[in-house]
Write a structure and sequence with these properties.
78% helix, mainly alpha, two-stranded antiparallel sheet
Length: 289
């Protein structure tokens, strides 16, 4: 009786959600793919130009630089985020006092918007650390890191790691908690050391947490825009302009909407391929574990 009632009324619950998904995501996505092959100023003033937009992308050295810079930034930042988050999570699950307070403190940067966070750290790199150098005579802070391409890139990586590691920390902590304690106790009885237990029991059992955290880290870093805008504004001389900022510049500053749409689709496809490979490899390791 209950089953018949559910079958009778399920469209009332499914149809609104499905309609919102089609209107808000699926149709704009399909239309966006078509617009990437067009030259347009509005969605009603559209001229089909074929692969012209993609040919211009291939010949655009500024987009190539922004794209490969984003790739390097995403991989370096993702590694640092996950190593730091895992190390802190491992320390916080040892059972010492004040772990809840530490979790809150490490998670707080994730609650701050990228724009606000970028301006805060811009002040730190440009003023606070430079003034600190005048007191402590630290050559590394003799000038603002944001004044050189290498320093600005390093600043982006540092701030991103600081912002997202707290969020990944909570996922790793939940992974540690989910590890069966009887396996750990059995390993201790058999004479296993803490490092051996972590390597051969804890880490294999935490593969789902690794898959989730790496996926979130990569996708967030590939899509970075607000922090890039507030911290470096793509400078100096567009040397730290990431792909998302380049797409925005092409579409809304240079009014090359078709090219911007094509660049966005290229970035989406690359992100999708990397995410698919990463999840597939992670799932295979999860089965082996």
């Amino acid at each position: 009786m209950v089953g018949k009632t559910i079958k009778k009324w399920w469209p009332i619950f499914v149809v609104p959600t499905l309609a919102a998904f089609i209107i808000g995501f699926l149709w704009p996505f399909i239309w966006g793919i078509y617009l990437s092959f067009c030259k347009f100023t509005t969605v009603q003033d559209v001229t089909f130009v074929g692969f012209s937009n993609y040919q211009k992308i291939l010949l655009d050295n500024t987009f190539s630089h922004a794209f490969w810079l984003t790739v390097a930034f995403a991989f370096i930042s993702s590694i640092l985020i996950n190593v730091l988050a895992f190390a802190i999570a491992l320390a916080l699950t040892k059972g010492f006092k004040g772990t809840n307070a530490f979790r809150t403190v490490f998670f707080m940067p994730n609650l701050i918007g990228g724009i606000v966070l970028g301006y805060i750290w811009q002040f730190i790199f440009s003023r606070v650390l430079v003034d600190l150098n005048s007191i402590l005579n630290l050559p590394i802070f003799a000038k603002s890191w944001l004044s050189s391409p290498q320093g600005a890139f390093a600043a982006m990586v540092i701030v991103t790691t600081w912002q997202y590691s707290g969020y990944m920390l909570l996922i790793y902590i939940s992974g540690f908690v989910s590890v069966p304690q009887d396996l750990i106790e059995a390993a201790k009885i058999d004479g296993g050391t803490s490092s051996q237990i972590t390597r051969h029991i804890t880490m294999p059992m935490m593969v789902p947490a690794f898959v989730t955290c790496i996926f979130l880290s990569l996708t967030r870093c590939f899509k970075v825009y607000d922090l890039n805008l507030a911290l470096t504004a793509g400078g100096p001389y567009d040397s730290t302009k990431m792909a998302a900022m380049h797409i925005y510049t092409q579409a809304f500053e240079n009014h090359l909407y078709g090219i911007g749409q094509a660049e966005a689709l290229v970035l989406f496809l690359v992100m999708g391929i990397i995410a698919f490979i990463q999840i597939s490899v992670g799932k295979s390791k999860e089965v082996e574990a």
